[in-house]
Structures are given as C-alpha cells and as structure tokens.
Amino acid sequence: MTLNFPAAAERYLRFRERIFAVGVEGPTSSIVAEPATASESELEIQARWFGGEFGRRFVGTEGEKIEIVQFGHWNRAAGPDFTEAAVKIDGTLKAGPIELDLDVRDWEAHGHGSNPAFEETVLHVFTDGPSLSRFYTRTEGHQLVPQVQLPQYAWSQGPPDFLPEAFPGRCVAPLGAMTDAEVDSLLLSAAQYRLQQKAERLRVMASSTTPEQALFQALAEALGFRVNKTPMAILSQRCPIRELVEMEPLDREARLFGAAGFLNQEFVSEAADKESRRYLRQLWDRWWKIRDQIEPLRGRSIPWCFSGNRPLNHPQRRVGALASLVDSWDDVSTFWEQNVNNLQKQVNNSLRNLHHPFWELNYTLKADPAPKPLRLLGEDRLRDILGNVVFPGAIEIAGGENRLWDEYLGLRKVDSNQKLRRASLRLFGSDEKRRKLFTSYYHQQQGLLQIYQDFCLEDVSDCEKCPFPEQLLQWQSADQVSDRLKAPQKSLLLQ
Q1: Within a domain: residue 89?
Q2: Is the dihedral of CA 186, 198, 67, 137 positive or negative?
Q3: Nearest CA among 197, 99, 111 for reference residue 148
Q4: What is the DSSP string of 355-397?
Q5: Contact present, 162 and 462 (Cβ < 8 Å)
Q6: Distance CA 222, CA 211 (A)
Q7: DSSP string, 242-308
Q8: 22 pLDDT tier (thresholds 50, 70, 90)
C-alpha cells in the first residue's frame, strides 16, 4: 500500500520534485527508510535491515525478484551476519544465511569466499561497490550468491553534514520577501510530508516484523536521542518485546542491561554505594544464567556513545527507562490505536508516571546517587516521542484523520540542537524575529529540518547553484491553501 498524501504533503512533494528536476541530484519519490549517510557503520545498516526499514521486496543485481520471507536470526558469533533466513528468488524459496556488507568487495576482503561457514549463503546485501565494473559474490565452492544493493544507497553516499554554523543561505532574501503566512504554509507542508515519511517507515517496519515490535523499536530509538538512536534500536532487536513481556521485571532488566553490555562482575564491586551494589547483584545473578545464549562477540557488541550526553541521558539510564516502559507495556502498546480526544494528554499521563526505584535516583550503575529524585522522561523527550513515534503511527493507522493532524500542529517546540540552529540560520539568516516565530512549534522545527535535509544537504555548490531560492518565488500564497489547512496556519501565527 502506498501512502495517500494529505494535501499539504502532496503539495510539498510536487514542489520538491520540481526543484530536483531543475538541477538538484536526489530522489524524486518518497523515501521509506531514513536517508543514508556515508558515515553509517556496517552495524547500523544491519540494524536498519533487521528492523525491516528497507522492506521485504527487492530487485537483485541480475534483475531477480527477491522477497525476504524470514529475516532469520542476527548472528552474535563468527560467520554470516544473519542465519536461518528464508528468501524467495524469482519464486523459488531458499533457506540459509544472509551476509550484509558496506561494500560488495568486502566479501573477498573479509575472506568470506574461502570460508566454509559462508558456503550456504543465500543472499549478499550491500550498499556500495565499484562504479566501473561488476563484482560477483562466489562461495568457496564457486557457487554464485544472489546480490541486492540497497536502493536507498544508490544516490545517497553524498556530501556529509558539513555546513558551517554561521553561513546564511541565498534563500534568506526570497524568504524575507514572503509573508509570514506564505513561510508558515511552506513549513507546514514540509512538516506534513516529513510526518508522512515517518509514518511510512513505521508501516514498513511493522509489515516486516510486527506492529508491536515496530512500536517498541521506535520508542527505544526515541529514548536513545540522536547519538544513541542506533544502539537502542539494536538493543530492541536483540531483546524483542514479545520475549521481554513474558519475563519477570528483574529478569528482563538483566536481559536488557546484559545484552547492552553493561553487566559484569567488576561493575558489582565498583558500584559507589550499597544500594547500587544490591541492584547490580540482583541483575548479575540473573544475567550470568543466560549470558552464554545472548552475549555477542566483542566485534558485534553495541557501540554506545558515552560522550556529549547530559548525565540524565547516560545510555545506562536510557536502558533503565526502556525497562520501565516495558513494565507498562499493556498501556504503551495501545498508543497507536487509542481513539481519544487528546492523544498528547493520554500519552503524557502514561509516560510521566514511569517509575523505577533505582533509576529515579541514579545517573549510572556505578556513580553516586543523585541528591534528589530524577524524572525518567523529561518534557522534551515526551514531545519527541509524540512527534516521532506516536503521532506518525496513529495517523497512519487512522488513515490521516484531520483530528490527529490538527492535534499534532499544537505540539510545542523541543529544545534546539545543532542541526536545527544551522537550518534556521541558513533559511532566516540574522532575522531573530522570524527564527523565533518559525521554531515555536514542533511541526515548524520539523519543516525546517525537512527543507534543510532536502536542499541544503543535497547541494554541493556551497549554495551558489542550488535552485531552491529561485523556486521559492513559485510558492503559492497561504491564502490559496485549502480551508482545511488554512485555519491551523492562521491560529499558529496569531499565538
């Protein structure tokens, strides 16, 4: 099923396609998976694959019709990346391992072609390869292995996010000549398009795994913030929600913290106080019994980022919040299907009440306790969960109900970050009044980020040849937007 875009998202899509046709190289259709970047690690790509972000149906490098019937098991030891998978190739079902590499040539560079463990591989998935020649994947027995290049990577190994902090773009002038209503309609349309992209990603993940697992992974990613989004996704895949909810609370905490790589005997002895040692001992006594079945080899361990985080957002504390979220899963699992008049209030009431006796008083497993109780989820995190997970999924399931869209428009802003500051500076320059006006709501911030992603990050001419500024002159006045979209725009500008 393809998304039926609401009017504003469709309008932005057409605007986007027109600009790409003028001269920006990039995708001219909706992107299911999040944009790929050259800096993504192999583990990150594997997590996106296993989470179902790329879907199930592909075209092989030889034109084969390829369908992933079963993603199999993510191998934690040596050998192919995914074992016990099932793949249909031109209608013929094949069972065996799947290998995923950043470069198709890694098959030989890593010695897979001479390794008997890879002899039964049924599919080789990769993101990049030689531009002027073809590389064939063969096993030790000289059997040809079908190949799939992930289509999202055919165009996107492009420029990194390198734009400087203090560099207003050429679009500042045409945007400055537009009325507030025109600018707001542009941001609203870009935001609606972005929300629909998030909804489509969740839909594809749900169809590739289950809706419940897709929701769990999306919530885990949101808890991880930007720097630990992928590690939290990997953790949610290695500890599936259906297995966690069947466990006792301390058993599933041990499973989560152990799989995350945060439990060992040294931790117990190094804890700062008696309560921390007691909590760690409870986890360790449960973890060591299942450790051999779950703990990955060192090369497949989860790559947590510990720097650049506020103490409240330490990865260990985020895992503690995830464990508490599972404790309330009966309520949380219905977020996408709740038919209520105020979804934001319903979700906030559920998540604000998350409770954990240890993590409400501690930053990490070993540090000294905090002087006063700490909330597991702050207001910004709650708003991000609503904007990135709950509303996209709920709107997709409800078929784009106007009621939910109108409620989404009322979400207030989240704290600024480097990319958001950079985007507002690129588009509005030194106009502080407009930068403040058009970042006051969550959807405005999302619209800015979508425009920045689509045009600023796709341009490699240092802004000189980007057609976006000239095409802005073609953007219609907000007065020409349908009455259904015009009312929310006016109300936002008047507040």
Answers
A1: yes
A2: positive
A3: 99
A4: --TTTTS-SSSSSPPPSS---SS-HHHHHHHIIIIIHHHHHHH
A5: no
A6: 17
A7: HHHTTS-HHHHHHHHHHHTT---HHHHHH-SSHHHHHHHHHHHHHHHHHHHHHPPPGGGS-----TT
A8: low
Amino acid type, 296: P
Strand partners, 441: 412
Question: Between the CA atoms of 479, 482, 487 and 492, what dihedral angle is there, to the nearest 10 degrees?
Answer: -70
Q: Structure tokens of 70?
A: 């079963």
Residues contacting 345, CB < 8 A, separation 6+: none
**Segment 104-119, tens digit of pLDDT:** 999 999 999 889 999 9
Q: Tally Cβ neighbours within 10 Å of residue 247.
A: 16
pLDDT in tens, 350-393: 898 888 999 999 988 887 888 889 899 989 899 999 999 999 99
236 with 211: CB under 8 angstroms?
Answer: no
**Mean pLDDT to the nearest integer, 278-293:** 92
Say if residues 189 and 214 touch (Cβ distance below 8 Å).
no
Backbone angles phi, psi at 74, to 5 degrees: -75, 110
Q: Which residues pair with 278 in a beta bridge?
A: none
Domain presence at residue 69: yes
Q: Please give the biggest Cα pair distance in the chain.
A: 71
| Residue 406 token pair | 């109108």
Burial 345-376 (b: 16+ CB within 10 A, else e): ebbbebbeebebebbbebbbbbbeeeeeebeb
Residue 103 in domain: yes
Q: What is the pTM of this model?
A: 0.79
One-letter amino acid at 453 equals Q
- Residue 354: DSSP 8-state: -
Number of independent structural domains in the chain:
1
What residue numbers bound the domain in which 56 lies?
42-153
CB 402 within 8 A of CB 484: yes
> What is the number of alpha carbons within 13 Å of residue 93 lying toward its C-beta?
6
Question: How many CA atoms does the CB half-sphere of 47 hold within 13 Å?
Answer: 27
For the record, the structure tokens of 205 come out as 């993940």
Q: Considering the domain boundaries, does residue 70 fall inside one?
A: yes
Cβ atoms of 35 and 453 closer than 8 Å: yes
Name the nearest CA neighbour of 153 among 113, 80, 100.
100
Between CA 331 and CA 350 the distance in angstroms is 7
User: Cβ(392)–Cβ(221) under 8 Å?
Assistant: no
The two tokens of residue 219 are 């919530």
Angle at 81 between CA 76 and CA 84, to 5 degrees: 90
Residues in the chain, how many?
495
DSSP element (H, E) containing 68: strand 65-70
- Angle among Cα 56, 57, 58 to the nearest 5 degrees reads 125
315 in Cβ contact with 235 (< 8 Å) = no
